[in-house]
Design a protein that fits this description.
The complex is a heterodimer of chains A (486) and B (201).
Chain A lengths: L17 H13 L9 E3 L3 E3 L1 H26 L14 H25 L9 H22 L25 H34 L3 H10 L7 H34 L11 H27 L8 H32 L2 H11 L7 H13 L7 H4 L2 H28 L14 H24 L5 H19 L6 H7 L1
Antiparallel strand pairs in A: 1-2
Chain B lengths: L9 E9 L2 H13 L5 E4 L7 H4 L6 H26 L28 H27 L23 E6 L7 H9 L5 E7 L4
Helix pairs in contact in B: 3-4
Classes of the chains: A mainly alpha (486), B alpha+beta (201).
Chain lengths: 486, 201
C-alpha cells in the first residue's frame, strides 16, 4: 500500500519466535523462581532478590500508609498541615501528581494505538497498570480529605431521604465523574487487552491452580478469527473513547483551579498545560519502571533502547510544552497588569522576599533545565541519564503543583489573610505511603500478570517477518491477501 | 446429564494446524474456493485478511457503542437537568411528587446551567460507551465460555501460542468429514484432526 512506512527493525531485537516471546514474557509469571533471581546477599547472610526487596519495601510503606490513615481518620484532618488560608495542601498536590502520572498509560495505550505507533506494544501493558495504580493512589487523597471517607458516596448522585443532590456546577463534582470514569474505563481497557494473554497463560501453564485462574480470567478465549474481528473493533473503539477521556480528566482536574478566582489559578492555559504536564510526569514514571524491569527480567530485546529513546523524546516534547506554560504564566501576569497576579509572580521568583521562591526555582531546575539533557541522542540511550532525568521530572512535577497550590493560597487578595503552609509528619507519611502502595502494586502486577502484551508482540513479530519476506524471498505466500488488509 | 440437549457424540469440525499466518491464509483460501462456508480459524493473534476470506463481517458493535454513548449523554444531562431544576419550567410539574429535584439558586446561575452540566454528561457518555464496547464485544463473542467443542482438538493447546488452526464446521451444508479431511491434508498442514463433541451443538 502506498505510504506504508516500514517497521523499525530496532523495536524487537534478537532472534525471536512466537515461542521465545511467550517464554520471555509469560514465564516471568508462570515460573515463580524468576522472581528469586538474581540473588542478593543481605547483611546477616539473608538471601533475597530485587523483586523481594522492592516488594518488601513497598509493603513497609503500605504499612506506613495504613498507620497514617488510621491516625488521620481517628483524629480528623487537623493532623495535616492544612490551615487558613491553605485549605488545600498535600492532599490536592499529591492527588494531581498521581493522576498526572497515570496519564502516560492511557496516552500510550490509546493515543498511540490510534496513531498506529508500533513502539507502544512493548510498554502499553506496564503503563496501563501504572495508570490504574496511580489513579488508586490519587483517589485516596480527595477521599480522605472529605474528612469522613465512610460517607464519600454522598459525592455521587443517588436518591436519598434528604432530597439533596450534588452541586453539578462545581468542578469538584465534575472531578468525581471524571476520575471514577477514568478509573473504570482504564480497568476495562486493561482487562480487554489481557484476555488473549490470559488464554496464552492458561494454555502454557502446567499448574492446576494457574490453569483454572487464568482460564477463568480468559473467559474461555480461543482466538477465533470471528472473535478477533470483534475484539479489534472493540479495542479501537476503546482507544477512541479513552483519548478524549484522558484529555478531559486532567482538563477537569485543572478546572478545580482554573474555575477559581485565586491569583495564579484563574488562567485559561491550565487545561492544555496540565495535560502536557501529566504526560510528561507519566512518561518519566514509565521510564523509571521500564529500565529496572527490563534489566531484571532480561527483556531488553523487547523493550529496546529505541523504546527508551522515543519515551525520552516524548518526555522532552511535553516538557517543552510545560515550560511554555510557565513562560505564559509570567506573560499573563505582566501583560494583564493586574496587581494580585503581579504580586503572585513576585511571590514566585523573588529569592529574598518570597517564602516559597525556593520551590519555584527548584521547579525550573528540575522540570525546565534538567530535561533539556534529552536533546542529546547519546544521553537518551544512557540508562543512567534517563533515570536521572526521570527522577528529576517526577520531583519537578510534584513541585509544579506545590508552587501552584500553597503559593497562590497563602497570598491572595488580602494581605491581612496571608499565611504559610507547613506539611506535617502525617502529610509525608501519607505521601510516601502512597508511593509505597504504588511500588507494592506494581511488583504484585509483575508477579501475577504478563507485563508486556504477548499477542501484540507476536503480531509485531509477524509484521516484521512479513516485511522481511518482501525483501528477500519469493512471493506467493498469501501476500496478496495480507497486503489488502494492511 | 442431559439438559434437554442431545448429547450423543456428533462431529463438530475438521481442523488443520499450521505454523504461520501465511500458511493459514493460503489454506483458508483454498478451502473457501472449494465451496465450504462454515469456517473459522484460531490464532494467537489477529491475522489480517482472514475474515475477508471466511466471509465474516460484523458491524453490530459500533452501533451498540453509539447507542450506549447517546444513552450516557442523555442520562447525564437528564439527571442534572432534573435534579437541578425539577424540570420546573416556570410551572409546577413535579411539585410534591417526590420528583421535584433540588432546585437551588447558586450564585445567581440559571437552574439549568447547561454549559456547567456538560462535563458530567461527557464523562457518562464515555463511561456507558466503554461499557457497551467491552461487554458488547464479550457478549457477541459468546464469552465467557470456559469450554468449547473445538478445544477437544489436541492442536488447540498451542493455538494461543504459536499455532494457527483452520476449522471447517460440521454445520456446513457440504460437510462430509472424510472429504474435508482429505482436502485439509493436501494443504501441507502440521496435522489434521476430526473433532467430535458431546455438548449438544
Amino acid at each position: 500500500m502506498a505510504g506504508h512506512t516500514p517497521i523499525d527493525k530496532d523495536l524487537l531485537t534478537g532472534d525471536h519466535s512466537y515461542e521465545t516471546l511467550d517464554a520471555a514474557i509469560g514465564d516471568i509469571v508462570l515460573d515463580s523462581t524468576t522472581h528469586n533471581k538474581p540473588e542478593v546477599k543481605l547483611p546477616g547472610g539473608i538471601k533475597s532478590s530485587p523483586w523481594q526487596l522492592m516488594f518488601g519495601f513497598g509493603f513497609l510503606f503500605v504499612n506506613i500508609l495504613l498507620m497514617s490513615l488510621t491516625v488521620l481518620v481517628f483524629n480528623g484532618i487537623g493532623v495535616w498541615g492544612n490551615n487558613q488560608p491553605t485549605g488545600w495542601g498535600f492532599d490536592i498536590v499529591n492527588f494531581v501528581w498521581w493522576i498526572g502520572i497515570g496519564h502516560a498509560g492511557t496516552l500510550i495505550s490509546a493515543v498511540l494505538l490510534l496513531l498506529r505507533q508500533k513502539w507502544r506494544n512493548s510498554i502499553n501493558r506496564m503503563a496501563e497498570a501504572m495508570t490504574i495504580f496511580a489513579v488508586m493512589c490519587a483517589g485516596l487523597y480527595p477521599l480522605l480529605h472529605t474528612g469522613r471517607p465512610w460517607v464519600a458516596y454522598w459525592l455521587f448522585p443517588y436518591p436519598n431521604i434528604t432530597g439533596m443532590w450534588p452541586q453539578f456546577r462545581s468542578p469538584l463534582v465534575w472531578d468525581v465523574f471524571a476520575v471514577s470514569t477514568y478509573m473504570t474505563v482504564s480497568i476495562l481497557f486493561w482487562f480487554v487487552g489481557l484476555i488473549p494473554d490470559f488464554a496464552t497463560l492458561r494454555d502454557r501453564s502446567r499448574k492446576r491452580v494457574s490453569q483454572v485462574v487464568y482460564g477463568m480470567l480468559s473467559l474461555g478465549w480461543r482466538g477465533s478469527a470471528k472473535h478477533w474481528h470483534r475484539y479489534e473493533h472493540a479495542s479501537i473503539i476503546l482507544a477512541g473513547l479513552s483519548t478524549p477521556l484522558v484529555l478531559s480528566v486532567h482538563t477537569i482536574v485543572s478546572f478545580d483551579f482554573a474555575m477559581g478566582i485565586v491569583p495564579g489559578w484563574n488562567v485559561t492555559i491550565f487545561p492544555p498545560y496540565f495535560v502536557a504536564g501529566a504526560v510528561f510526569a507519566g512518561f518519566a514514571m514509565v521510564i523509571l519502571f521500564a529500565i529496572p524491569l527490563r534489566k531484571l527480567y532480561k527483556l531488553d530485546t523487547i523493550i529496546t533502547d529505541k523504546h527508551l529513546d522515543w519515551m525520552a523524546k516524548v518526555m522532552l516534547a511535553t516538557g517543552l510544552i510545560v515550560f511554555y506554560g510557565y513562560i505564559m504564566e509570567v506573560f499573563y501576569a505582566k501583560y494583564s497588569g493586574v496587581e494580585p497576579e503581579l504580586a503572585l509572580f513576585h511571590n514566585r521568583i523573588s529569592l529574598s522576599e518570597a517564602p516559597y521562591s525556593w520551590a519555584f526555582w527548584m521547579l525550573i531546575l528540575t522540570n525546565g533545565i534538567i530535561p533539556q539533557l534529552m536533546w542529546s541522542p547519546k544521553l537518551r540511550r544512557s540508562t543512567w541519564a534517563l533515570v536521572t532525568v526521570a527522577v528529576s521530572v517526577s520531583i519537578g512535577m510534584w513541585f509544579e503543583r506545590y508552587v501552584i497550590i500553597p503559593i497562590s493560597l497563602t497570598r491572595d487578595y488580602m494581605p491581612g489573610a496571608y499565611g504559610y503552609y507547613t506539611p506535617t509528619l502525617w502529610d509525608f507519611g501519607m505521601f510516601f505511603g502512597t508511593i509505597g502502595l504504588f511500588i507494592f502494586l506494581m511488583f504484585l502486577f509483575v508477579r501475577f500478570l504478563p507485563m508486556i502484551n504477548m499477542f501484540e508482540m507476536k503480531e509485531l513479530l509477524h509484521q516484521m517477518k512479513h516485511e522481511q519476506g518482501h525483501d528477500d524471498h519469493a512471493p506467493g505466500h498469501g501476500d496478496a491477501v495480507a497486503e489488502e488488509a494492511h | 446429564m442431559s439438559h434437554g440437549r442431545d448429547t450423543s457424540p456428533k462431529p463438530y469440525a475438521v481442523v488443520a494446524e499450521f505454523d504461520s499466518p501465511e500458511a493459514l491464509l493460503e489454506a483458508a483460501k483454498t478451502v473457501r474456493s472449494n465451496g465450504y462456508r462454515d469456517m473459522d480459524a484460531y490464532s494467537p493473534m489477529p491475522v489480517h485478511g482472514l475474515t475477508d476470506i471466511i466471509d465474516f463481517k460484523d458491524d453490530k458493535l459500533g452501533f451498540v457503542v453509539f447507542a450506549h454513548g447517546v444513552m450516557g449523554f442523555l442520562l447525564g444531562y437528564g439527571l442534572q437537568w432534573w435534579t437541578s431544576t425539577g424540570f420546573n419550567f416556570g410551572g409546577t410539574w413535579f411539585q410534591n411528587t417526590g420528583l421535584n429535584g433540588y432546585a437551588h439558586n447558586v450564585g445567581g446561575k440559571p437552574l439549568f446551567s447547561y454549559p456547567a452540566f456538560f462535563p458530567p454528561a461527557y464523562e457518562l457518555t464515555i463511561l456507558l460507551a466503554a461499557f457497551g464496547a467491552t461487554f458488547g464485544m464479550i457478549a457477541f463473542n459468546g464469552l465467557p465460555k470456559p469450554h468449547h467443542p473445538v478445544m477437544n482438538a489436541a492442536c488447540m493447546a498451542r493455538a494461543s501460542a504459536d499455532r494457527f488452526v483452520l476449522a471447517v464446521e460440521a454445520t456446513d451444508p457440504r460437510y462430509d468429514e472424510d472429504e474435508v479431511f482429505e482436502l485439509m491434508n493436501t494443504l501441507n498442514p502440521l496435522s489434521v484432526e476430526r473433532v467430535w463433541t458431546e455438548e449438544g451443538y
